[in-house]
Design goal:
The chain contains five helices and four strands.
Length: 164
C-alpha cells in the first residue's frame, strides 16, 4: 500500500469522525397551513355574523407574519388593523391579547407598550400545539373584546383536531 493511499484513507477517516449529521442543524417545527388559517378566519367571522356582529379576522403564523386577513362584510375601517394588532400581540407574548391590559397596569413602565403592532385590546388567542405557540388569531368589530375572543375560540375549536 502506498503512502499516499494510506494518507488519503487516514484523511477520509478523520473527516468522517468529525462530521456532524446535517439534520443536527435543522429545526423541525409545526406551522399553520393556509387552509387551516382560512378555515379559522372564516369560522370566526361566521360565528360573529350569526351573533349579529360584523368583524374582520387576522391569522398570524409562528413569527407573527400574516397568513390570512379577511375583512368581514360591513366592517369599520379600523377592524383590519385592530385584528392584526390583537393577533400579533397574542403571538408575541403567547397569551390572550386582553391579558396585556393587566400586565400594563401591573407594570406601567413595560417596554412592550412601545412596540409597533402592540395592543391591550381583548379579542385574540394564541394557537398552540401542546405548549408550542405556532400562531395567533385576532378578531375586531364586535361590541366588546370578549365577543371578538369568543368568535376566535370558535375558529380555533374548528381546527383543533388538526393541531397535533
Amino acid at each position: 500500500m502506498s503512502a499516499s493511499y494510506r494518507f488519503a484513507c487516514l484523511g477520509l477517516a478523520s473527516a468522517c469522525a468529525f462530521a456532524t449529521p446535517a439534520s443536527a442543524d435543522l429545526l423541525v417545527q409545526k406551522s399553520l397551513s393556509a387552509a387551516m388559517a382560512v378555515t379559522l378566519a372564516t369560522t370566526a367571522i361566521e360565528n360573529c355574523k350569526t351573533s349579529g356582529y360584523a368583524v374582520s379576522a387576522t391569522i398570524v403564523g409562528r413569527t407573527g407574519e400574516v397568513i390570512v386577513q379577511i375583512r368581514g362584510d360591513g366592517t369599520g375601517p379600523h377592524t383590519m388593523e385592530n385584528s392584526f394588532k390583537k393577533a400579533f400581540t397574542a403571538r408575541t407574548f403567547r397569551i390572550p391579547s386582553g391579558e396585556m391590559e393587566k400586565r400594563l397596569k401591573d407594570n406601567p413602565q413595560m417596554g412592550a407598550q412601545y412596540l409597533t403592532g402592540f395592543t391591550t385590546g381583548r379579542g385574540a388567542l394564541p394557537i398552540k400545539v401542546g405548549e408550542d405557540v405556532i400562531g395567533a388569531a385576532g378578531v375586531s368589530g364586535a361590541p366588546g373584546g370578549e365577543k371578538d375572543e369568543a368568535c376566535v375560540k370558535a375558529g380555533i375549536d374548528k381546527i383543533a383536531g388538526q393541531l397535533k
